[in-house]
Amino acid sequence: MGERELSESVINLKGIGEKTGKLFNKCGVYTCRDLIYYFPRTYDEFKAPVHASELVEGEVCAATLTIVGSIMKRRVRNLSIISFEAVDYTGKIKMTYFNAPYLASSLKSGTTHVFRGVVRKKGNFFTFDQPKMYKPSEYDTLCGKLMPRYPLVKSLSNNTVTKAVQNAFKNAGRFDEFVPEDIIKRLGLMSYFDAIYNIHFPKNSAILEQARRRLAYNEFFLFILKLRLLKKIQEENKNTFPMMEVAEAKRFLEKLPYKLTNAQLNSYNDILSDISGRYVMNRLIQGDVGSGKTVVAFLALLTAAANGYQGAIMAPTEVLAAQHFEGFKEMIDKYGLTSLKPVLLTGALSAKDKREAQRMIKEGEVNCIIGTNALIQEKVEYKNLALVVTDEQHRFGVRQREALAGKGENVHVLAMSATPIPRTLAIILYGDLHISIIDELPGGRIPIKNCVVGTDYRNTAYKFICDQVKEGHQAYIICPMVEEGELDGVENVTDYTDKLKSVFPSDISVAMLHGKMKPSMKDEIMEAFARKDIDVLVSTTVIEVGINVPNATVMMIENAERFGLSQLHQLRGRVGRGNAQSYCIFLNTSKSDDAKKRLDIMNKSNDGFKIAEEDLKQRGPGELFGLRQSGELNFRIGDIYHDSDLLKEASVDADRILSEDPELSDTQYNVLRSTLNTKSANFVDFTTL
Ligand code: ADP
Ligand code: MG
């Protein structure tokens, strides 16, 4: 490929100086290669103009309209405002522009333009704020085109990125194919270069889909090859920390007030047979939210401790780490588990406490280390680490997991995830040996009752929450934002909390939680909520992962339409964790039918697997990038559900190639070999490996 040109800094591109270069750096883009792999987040489709009567509130629409009446110009403080009306034979629309005096000359009563923008409704009136204006003939040529929309940072415009990408392509030569020719032919894949080009600038959605498929195949093919090669290495690693089942774990299970589900027991037995076996353990435990993964991890850590080793569990947030620590301590005390000596190590600790924790870890005074990625910092030395557990592992990068595992030699690895992947796909991705699936919920759980409602239901919901609190329960309310932002009509935790304090009687205690708070503050709030000192917690999605307060029975999600379904499912998983009936209220503030349809899926099902599949069926190709869900396997382009056929092909291809040539030593695999060896994350985001 045009290697040399692509390695050049983006600053060498026309129109990019030091300052813009820095903005690109913020996006992780340094070289021209980075730039052409900087894929659009979504596309703007220039749809055919509709009639004034067909405009849909909240959506981007175009309409061919004729300006009528006079053009009004006003000034409000330092803002100049132009407003006027435009019509077609079906209706009238009001237009407003701010600080756009240059428009004044082209706006004349009687002239016809295509106006395109977000439709709003004021009273009975449709309005356009700042719509883009086109000559009808100009719009004709744009119609049907997909324009890339890139992820941006402040001061970096979509236009700048688009131009830069175009310029980068001018210098790019051809790319060497690493996928064997016969596979490209058999699957009718687009060439690698064309695929990269068309992911930025597709002529239409059919071409976009072809480009997407090609890149998805690339990701799957490399991912699976890497995985198979990695697994081979791991399987050859002898078990240097053989462990036996311990009496303490058996006693603990007998004393527990509940029985483990069969699925939990099977997972535990899988772990026991791994750690007592010939090879080092590398197991994934997959179970829907609330299926009870923590106790399985706890059993593994207890086993390691009682066998004389250290074990560590890494959680993605401080709040979750602190919760695990508290929960573990409680079980240790309650069931007299004397061999477990826990310690918490997170970034939130004071420097002094951190040093003390590190000392205890190094000297082996503690053997169950619970924390965040503070566990993997260089300063932390372990005495005899033999087991590492990653909770909510899809939240970590492979490097983080490897770094934790690298703190000991050939340590056993247990990864836990609530990612709902159907078993058939999981087997392709992980192989059938190393995955345990917890596919049943603990008995006695009452299914969550759901409802999707509009804003007019809010007061009823507040009343309902009050009633639940009076019965001794607690509630979560989720808002998308931390504080007031640019987005209209999107609730934020800060203002919402203030509002609720005046809505609810004063004996109901309301508090807020969000990611921008100091870690120690977050811990304090979560602990207070767990102690029931807080009745209603208004939070951002920081509570999405892992939080367990079984007494909470109501979850209300504001602007529910703004979240992905899998994310909603994870959020909802915070309730329904105890024996009481729980409720989830999805507040839909959008008027669009699609939003309603999507949320209805949540209404109908509590099953994470089903939701993930349904979600997919409803997505159009243009949306595939925008709706990256948390908790799914994060390929950049490929989608394991949508592209499951390609995933299967890639799996068969990878296995065939490796069985014929395990080292990939044939010259036809030269490019493939070097591609696999590059650290470049251009192809696969290995977050989930
Ligand atoms: P997750 O799989 O989402 O991490 P947790 O491990 O947090 O779920 O468990 C959720 C709740 O279920 C906890 O309160 C836990 O004590 C409880 N739990 C776990 N296993 C069982 C079981 N077999 N029977 C009853 N309750 C259980
Ligand atoms: Mg959990």
TrEMBL record:
<keyword id="KW-0547">Nucleotide-binding</keyword>
<comment type="similarity">
    <text>Belongs to the helicase family. RecG subfamily.</text>
</comment>
<dbReference type="GO" id="GO:0006310">
    <property type="term" value="P:DNA recombination"/>
</dbReference>
<dbReference type="GO" id="GO:0016887">
    <property type="term" value="F:ATP hydrolysis activity"/>
</dbReference>
<dbReference type="InterPro" id="IPR045562">
    <property type="entry name" value="RecG_dom3_C"/>
</dbReference>
<dbReference type="InterPro" id="IPR004609">
    <property type="entry name" value="ATP-dep_DNA_helicase_RecG"/>
</dbReference>
<dbReference type="InterPro" id="IPR027417">
    <property type="entry name" value="P-loop_NTPase"/>
</dbReference>
<dbReference type="InterPro" id="IPR014001">
    <property type="entry name" value="Helicase_ATP-bd"/>
</dbReference>
<protein>
    <recommendedName>
        <fullName>ATP-dependent DNA helicase RecG</fullName>
        <ecNumber>5.6.2.4</ecNumber>
    </recommendedName>
</protein>
<dbReference type="GO" id="GO:0006281">
    <property type="term" value="P:DNA repair"/>
</dbReference>
<dbReference type="InterPro" id="IPR047112">
    <property type="entry name" value="RecG/Mfd"/>
</dbReference>
<dbReference type="InterPro" id="IPR001650">
    <property type="entry name" value="Helicase_C-like"/>
</dbReference>
<keyword id="KW-0378">Hydrolase</keyword>
<keyword id="KW-0067">ATP-binding</keyword>
<dbReference type="Pfam" id="PF17191">
    <property type="entry name" value="RecG_wedge"/>
</dbReference>
<dbReference type="GO" id="GO:0043138">
    <property type="term" value="F:3'-5' DNA helicase activity"/>
</dbReference>
<keyword id="KW-0233">DNA recombination</keyword>
<feature type="domain" description="Helicase ATP-binding">
    <location>
        <begin position="274"/>
        <end position="438"/>
    </location>
</feature>
<keyword id="KW-0413">Isomerase</keyword>
<dbReference type="GO" id="GO:0003677">
    <property type="term" value="F:DNA binding"/>
</dbReference>
<dbReference type="InterPro" id="IPR011545">
    <property type="entry name" value="DEAD/DEAH_box_helicase_dom"/>
</dbReference>
<keyword id="KW-0234">DNA repair</keyword>
<dbReference type="Pfam" id="PF00271">
    <property type="entry name" value="Helicase_C"/>
</dbReference>
<keyword id="KW-0238">DNA-binding</keyword>
<dbReference type="Pfam" id="PF00270">
    <property type="entry name" value="DEAD"/>
</dbReference>
<dbReference type="GO" id="GO:0005524">
    <property type="term" value="F:ATP binding"/>
</dbReference>
<keyword id="KW-0347">Helicase</keyword>
<feature type="domain" description="Helicase C-terminal">
    <location>
        <begin position="461"/>
        <end position="617"/>
    </location>
</feature>
<dbReference type="Pfam" id="PF19833">
    <property type="entry name" value="RecG_dom3_C"/>
</dbReference>
<dbReference type="InterPro" id="IPR012340">
    <property type="entry name" value="NA-bd_OB-fold"/>
</dbReference>
<keyword id="KW-0227">DNA damage</keyword>
<comment type="function">
    <text>Plays a critical role in recombination and DNA repair. Helps process Holliday junction intermediates to mature products by catalyzing branch migration. Has replication fork regression activity, unwinds stalled or blocked replication forks to make a HJ that can be resolved. Has a DNA unwinding activity characteristic of a DNA helicase with 3'-5' polarity.</text>
</comment>
<dbReference type="InterPro" id="IPR033454">
    <property type="entry name" value="RecG_wedge"/>
</dbReference>
